[in-house]
Amino acid sequence: MPFIYNRTVRFQDTDAAGVVYFANVLAICHEAYEESLKVAGMNLKDFFTHPTVAFPIVHASVDFFKPMFCGDDLLIQLMPQQLSSDRFEVTYEVMVGELLAAKTVTRHVCIDTNTRSKREFPEQIREWLEVHHKEAESVERRKSREII
Question: Which residues are known catalytic residues?
Answer without folding.
Answer: 15
